[in-house]
Design brief:
The protein has 562 residues and is an alpha+beta fold. The protein has two domains: 199 residues, 3-Layer(bba) Sandwich (FAD/NAD(P)-binding domain), CATH 3.50.50.60; 215 residues, no CATH class. Helices cover 36% and strands 22% of the residues. It is built from 18 helices and 21 strands. Strands 11-10-9-2-1-12-20 form a seven-stranded mixed β-sheet. Strands 7-6-15-16-17-14-18 form a seven-stranded mixed β-sheet, with helices on one face. A three-stranded antiparallel β-sheet has the order 13-19-21, with no helix packed on it. Strand 16 and strand 17 form a beta hairpin. The longest helix is centred in the first third of the chain and has 32 residues. The radius of gyration is 25 Å and the shape is globular. The structure holds flavin-adenine dinucleotide (FAD). The site of flavin-adenine dinucleotide has 42 residues, from helix 3, strand 2, strand 9, strand 18 and helix 14. This is FAD/NAD(P)-binding domain-containing protein.
């Protein structure tokens, strides 16, 4: 054989494994950078070399704050949580009762409804049902060995994470086959209200880490070192209106929607106040939503089992004894503003509806009319109305939660490492308040806490690059959520965009997304990637690989009929 041919042959033989290795390395990079799945592997394990003789102060004792406190207890000898809401620190906030009664609300349009009363006044969405993704369950299991037992004791529902999502009417394919061939089923998620999850987390943290200190007070100021590079103390105004300085080696802003960290920083570094304010971007999606919590009607499970709900599992129909989420309608704002879902919670059935500048149905009849009014490529399946009919016996017992979300915001802390103290970090809604239409806020908080754990395993909070590294990693792992939610919202004509942006921004992403939404109803491979990205288990970059791009182009050229 001529020598040139031999060389070409050898190069060709090398090219295949090289490409494979490069592709594997690229995939690994994507998972490491854009998801927290790698950090999950060490979550909950003792810190190498023992705990730091140091103090972490966490401002805010809600979901992000509690997750952070649990993670910090593996790294710091002293962990302090500062929370202004006295009730949140009480036994009742862990063990219940979580609501105090009900009251009647008279609306301007003359429809009245019953809603629950409660003492968690600082969290607007306390009564709202929340959905969660599979990553959250993995996070909780890694941190709390008693998680499953406590969930069972509280009769909270945990089930395969199948939201039976219909996007503009087309049912997404769920990757059952992939799991069934391994003898498994879809990864599990919790199906419970936000208030029950918060109580569960409080109990788990208290049991796992009795040494965590809770201070009833409000973080009001940060004290900085003379060179301004470190926070040395957090000033806290306590119940008796006195101010106490808590010495700290790391401070975490978990103050949610208050986003107190930005205000505290602006006061502590007045020369950078303008620059800090510029880090915050907000827009108004005018997202209006209502949900009704029904008790479980008698014989509901038996009667539901008679209703055929299609599924991608082996049986081809949903096993309603095992599955807890019955239906979700997702939309594309260019088609319609309405979304709808029906799900279980430990106390009964929850029906939620809403969208951009949406009507808010306040009783069962209005829910039916809302569902009938939904527009899409295909109509809302008839079984949805049959499920609603099963609620008729408890129609007058529903408790309503009505919400208006007029501000979504993100603080780009990762752009400000030249100004920020090295040991200041933030996560949860204090950094990014998403449109809750996608129900991602809590899992995002668990990704933040996991990212903190991973960062603390390679950087001490005394390292000059600590805060910068955490904030960069967090941004990489969450900015896709912000972009996806915001750019989808810009497709609704009622959305008021962020300063300096227009509703045309993201037109290509919206187009790509709308074609992808059709694909996930017919292509099992793309649907599986979409599912795992949605579960926070895979990077969103996998939805724009050359293979997926090719499929999107084909679907765009030859659209699947409705
Ligand atoms: C209507 C609605 C529906 C939603 N649905 C979903 C859903 O389905 N799924 C989902 O995952 N997410 C959902 N979310 C989002 C989710 O509720 C939030 O992402 C989550 O509550 C964020 O938790 P957090 O701990 O960051 O903040 P929060 O829960 O807001 O808590 C902030 C805490 O900080 C405390 N605090 C405030 N100021 C200070 C201060 N100065 N010092 C000390 N402490 C302070 C407060 O008292 C509070 O306890 C929804 C949100 C809304 C509005």
């Amino acid at each position: 054989m001529p020598k040139t041919l031999q060389i070409v042959g050898a190069l060709a033989a090398l090219a295949v494994p090289t490409c494979l290795l490069a592709s594997r390395a690229y995939r690994s990079y994507l998972f490491r950078t854009y998801t927290a799945t790698r950090d999950l592997l060490s979550l909950g394990k003792p810190r190498a070399g023992g705990k730091l003789s140091a103090t972490a102060v966490i401002c805010g004792g809600s979901l992000a704050g509690l997750m952070t406190a649990r993670v910090c207890s593996d790294h710091f000898e002293r962990v302090i949580v500062v929370e202004p809401e006295a009730w949140a620190l009480s036994d009742a906030a862990r063990e219940g009762p979580l609501t105090t009664g009900t009251r009647t609300v008279e609306t301007e349009r003359g429809v009245s409804y019953t809603t629950a009363t409660h003492k968690r006044t600082r969290v607007y969405q306390y009564l709202g049902y929340h959905v969660y993704q599979a990553f959250l369950t993995l996070f909780l299991r890694a941190l709390f060995p008693t998680f499953d037992k406590t969930v069972e004791e509280r009769r909270l529902l945990i089930a395969p994470c199948d939201y039976n999502l219909h996007i503009v009417g087309r049912r997404m394919l769920y990757p059952y086959k992939e799991y069934e061939t391994r003898g498994e089923t879809l990864p599990p998620a919790l199906f419970t209200t936000r208030r029950s999850l918060e109580a569960l987390l409080r109990t788990l943290v208290k049991a796992a880490c009795p040494h965590i200190e809770y201070i009833h007070g409000t973080a009001t100021d940060l004290k900085l070192s003379t060179d301004g590079r470190r926070v040395t103390a957090v000033s806290v105004r306590t119940d008796s209106a006195t101010v106490q300085d808590l010495q700290c080696d790391m401070v975490v802003d978990c103050t949610g929607n208050t986003q107190a960290g930005l205000k505290l920083l602006a006061r502590a570094i007045p020369t950078a106040s303008d620059e800090l304010q510029k880090l915050r971007v907000s827009y108004d999606p005018k997202m209006y939503y209502s949900g009704i919590e029904y008790p479980l009607p008698q014989n509901f499970e038996e009667e539901l089992a008679q209703i055929e709900i299609p599924s991608d599992n082996k049986a081809g129909r949903m096993d309603t004894g095992r599955h807890k989420h019955y239906f979700t309608w997702g939309t594309n704002p260019s088609k319609d503003h309405r979304t709808l879902f029906i799900t279980r919670w430990e106390g009964g059935v929850y029906v939620g509806a809403g969208g951009w500048n949406s009507e808010t149905p306040l009783n069962l009849q209005e829910m039916r009319e809302y569902a009938r009014a939904i527009k899409g490529d295909r109509p809302v399946p008839e079984y949805v109305f049959k499920i609603l009919d099963l609620l008729e016996p408890v129609a007058n017992e529903g408790e309503v939660f009505e919400a208006k979300i007029n501000s979504c915001s993100r603080i780009f802390y990762e752009r400000a490492h030249a100004i920020l103290p090295n040991n200041f970090i933030a996560h949860g809604d204090s950094v990014m308040r998403l449109n809750p239409r996608f129900g991602e806020g809590i899992t995002k908080s668990s990704v933040g806490a996991t990212t903190l754990d991973g960062t603390l395993r390679s950087f001490s909070p005394f390292n000059a690059n600590f805060g910068r590294t955490f904030l960069r990693r967090l941004a990489d792992r969450s900015e896709g959520l912000w972009d996806a939610a915001k750019l989808t919202d810009y497709g609704a004509e009622t959305t008021i965009p962020a300063k300096g942006e227009t509703r045309n921004d993201g037109a290509f992403a919206r187009w790509y997304g709308s074609v992808l939404n059709r694909l996930v109803a017919k292509d099992a491979e793309v649907a599986s990637t979409f599912y795992h990205v949605g579960m926070f288990l895979a990077p969103s970059a996998l939805l724009s690989t050359p293979t997926v791009l090719g499929k999107v182009l084909l679907e765009a050229l030859f659209p699947t009929p409705a």
